[in-house]
Task: inverse folding
């Protein structure tokens, strides 16, 4: 399989189309786009069969990408709009898997002390949990309120425990009907850092985005459906350079300054060669935008509000 | 039973002696004191039978109190000395319950976003975990290294899940041999805030110190020994006022300004009356010293270093 | 002069009335009260002559106290209401001292690393400054926009420089027409901690609340009017105990359990004696409520929004 | 002048040599290198005349670059070694400009709320200030102790005031003999992010590294010598891509896969073209490594300790 270096299904589909030189619809993959407003776009990719699975290396299921422009400078109103979009999509997916009162456990992956990795734990702090109120003070909640609990289990490097081991233990003990996992993703483009949300109902492999594959968190390992809310927050330098090189050659082509060799270079994927060049110099760092603190803060508001509204 | 309003066994013993007007040794309670240096004192209280249990309302077991003076202005050297004292006491207790290689899970209770309640999660971030290295990269650790894992499970108000439910799930899934729990305690004296550590091998009731009793975390609920490291970080205003009132009357007595009524007042416990007076005015807040940020920072270093050295 | 142990003019007036056994209006002090809504009350104290000055030890000028109940659990709507109240009062005072376009420098006193002392610097981070835009990109602001700048100068213990020395230098160099200073105050009652705002147009003495008198920040030292926004965030244990003792004796009196001696005790101010008792035991700490993080966060929103709306 | 896109004098000298195809010593520029240990290297560049100034676009003076490898995983011992190296170089520069007791003001530029820009304010919090002790409690310091004060003035976007305006005011008011400024720099290489310190005695232009030129902070504007301690913490994507492209072509050349066109491309500086390509896509972000929190934390310890030891 092609090394996509992105967890976003729509980016993978584009790359598959480009590298396989296929135009139009791919068998097993359905897509629709919707423009919510000037700044918010939604793309729904559905993988419907094994052919689709193989094409882009993602399991059968729904993948919804919400792109939010100018999140860095977003005001209250724009954050609410983005949260509403997330909330609407999340509700639709939830309804496919559990009933209105089905108990949900929200899990925020990541490390609170590493800014680009702190989104998950920060969202957890804002989730309106109801499980303990329903259990101990039922008079204070409306009948029919959904039980919601939330946890930030930490990261393997700090806990020494695989996240799935922690979650398996909790799920077996408190028996929710569905898990929502918030995680950092890898994307191909730095413009998507903390500006894109991908919703999917096929679970997650923590750290997959940055090359540290951990055990899967999914219906297979937990026994209940897992909805993943993934947000790109970092990008690998070699990916950045590879994509920028293509853009640069494209410009030379436009200006008729390119040549056969460069054209060929652009056709190929030079990621591995670039990585090889950068590695010995310690150049191939994982990077994040300078404004990551503010981006995370705004994205936290979007995701927390989006989840709270839908539950 | 008397309402001790302290989780410290040595404070309870003192109160029991005072209120029961017993002098000398109490049946079922053994105590020794040691002065490590000018600033560090250790007191070991052992409850040996049911009589001792009844007297001070704590289960049979070991209770070691380490008092550290001037922690607020402690420098590197003093923090290391305090950590060594903790480490020595912890090693002795560990050796009574598991062998040198027995796997340990360290649990930091509390809420990272509430300064006086953030000690537990902050210590967890500093624990030298080895479990994942032994599992995935055994070549990087010496043979015989003890497996250590660590978790900050959050608080009921944020997670909606009782801490013991989370821990039970994890313990059943990863099978450590012993749990060390770091928790906030109640103390009678504001001078002990973040300056005292109590080690015990009888487990813990989270939130007991501030009147929110949660389910017990102990060998009864988890099935393995639980060592508690408790640190007072807050005090209730009514406790503060009650104790200060006694000191004030004592002063009047010394100056021969007191009278029968005041003497009687001092003999009695006025906590309930004082609380009743303060409550309607919203005066009975739980308070913490102004310098709590720095106290927590220094105590975090003491506890993290103390645990790491002993494991 | 009586040791009031509060910076709030209305608390001082009450104490003056009580200790001097004066009822009704005091010469040189005018007061009005207004109830904005169930949770917000405003009291305006005006000191009009030297007699008023002497009575309560505050210079001639306006002192407006805004009390906000339940700020700890305040939602967006309640925070906006409180900010509006602050904004309305602030506008009135501003209009008395400068014209609509008069340049303002907002100063946030305090130490960002000490939670109960971090309000000032946190507010500064939220102020809508315009000075640099008017200077460098005037096309982006409406004509007639007021120049606003803001600074958090730090505290003497961290900078080694008196705050007034820093401000004097800046004021002489950038020439604002008025300074707004945000500072921590002392109050008599723990219920007022981070729930009360006092506005005054007579400047400030940093640290006065906690016994560290620094040089005055006022029209005398800076040469331009200084509006102070003071918020109580800490209280001294001896003050707490002294006030609680009075409440306790009151209760005994109500129950006819008191006696002559106690009645006399209540008439007197026992602060100094209580302090004397607590000091040798290191008991006389400055304390703050356990929930100070959340209180500061909400108060920051009230003050920042209140200032931004009025400028 | 060539657009160096780096504030490091030694990187500029290398680029000048490469682009001007000059080998060996350049007139007006003297350099020496020293290897302190396996992980720490020092390079001293001295610009001695106008010719040197013109060549690399930096004023006459001393530029000392300290490179610290593996700072991300540095332990206490390595941080102390790095601090000692900084301290030794700083002492030498200080001695050239003021006497042993000459008062020093340490200034930490940057924004505490933006992780890659927070180094300056964080260092200020750790500086051992003595000015207030010498002024108010001279009995507590040894005779001959140097007066040290420190300030974190904030950034133009938050204060609305040019940093030099703030500093000019303070310097004119408290009269130090020398200013040390800590600032973020631009570097060409991502490996130098928060791993390199440049000391210079020619002052600083805040924000120069990221294209926001502010007024100079130097002897010209403040009237006293200004020593700058600059640390690269961010890099522009176009710089990253441009440098990586060169490395990539070099590799193709080594493998004899390059061609005339590519060779020419490598000879030229393609920064502007790459920037042009990335800009319309919002790709040309300023980036920082994922681990920036930890890098800043360790670098803060190095710089604070280095300054404290030398003063």
Result:
């Amino acid at each position: 399989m092609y090394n996509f270096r992105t967890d976003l299904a729509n980016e993978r589909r584009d790359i598959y189309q480009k590298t396989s030189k296929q135009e139009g619809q791919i068998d097993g993959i359905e897509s629709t786009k919707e423009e919510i407003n000037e700044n918010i776009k939604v793309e729904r990719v559905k993988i419907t069969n094994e052919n689709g699975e193989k094409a882009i290396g993602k399991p059968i299921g729904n993948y919804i990408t919400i792109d939010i422009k100018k999140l860095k400078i977003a005001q209250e109103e724009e954050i609410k709009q983005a949260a509403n979009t997330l909330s609407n999509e999340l509700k639709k997916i939830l309804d496919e898997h559990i009933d209105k009162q089905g108990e949900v456990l929200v899990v925020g992956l990541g490390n609170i002390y590493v800014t680009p990795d702190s989104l998950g734990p920060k969202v957890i702090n804002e989730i309106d949990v109801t499980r303990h109120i329903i259990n101990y003070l039922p008079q204070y909640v409306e009948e029919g309120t959904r039980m919601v609990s939330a946890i930030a289990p930490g990261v393997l490097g700090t806990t020494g425990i695989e996240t799935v081991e922690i979650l398996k233990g909790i799920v077996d003990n408190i028996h929710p009907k569905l898990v929502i996992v918030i995680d950092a993703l890898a994307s191909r483009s730095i413009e998507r850092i903390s500006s894109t949300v991908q919703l999917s109902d096929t679970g997650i492999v923590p750290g997959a985005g940055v090359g540290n594959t951990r055990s899967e968190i999914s219906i297979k390992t937990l026994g209940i459906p897992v909805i993943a809310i993934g947000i790109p927050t970092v990008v690998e330098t070699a990916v950045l350079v590879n994509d920028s090189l293509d853009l640069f050659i494209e410009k030379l082509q436009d200006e008729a300054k390119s040549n056969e060799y460069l054209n060929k270079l652009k056709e190929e994927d030079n990621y591995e060669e670039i990585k090889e060049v950068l590695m010995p110099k310690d150049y191939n760092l994982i990077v994040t935008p300078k404004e990551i603190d503010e981006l995370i803060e705004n994205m936290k508001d979007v995701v927390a509000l989006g989840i709270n509204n839908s539950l």
Observations:
- The mean pLDDT of chain B is 88.
- Residues 239-281 of chain B form one domain.
- Chain B touches chain C at residues 113-117, 189-191, 193, 210, 234, 237, 240-241, 244-245, 247-248, 250-251, 259, 261-262, 270, 273-274, 276-278, 281-283, 285-294 (CB under 8 Å).
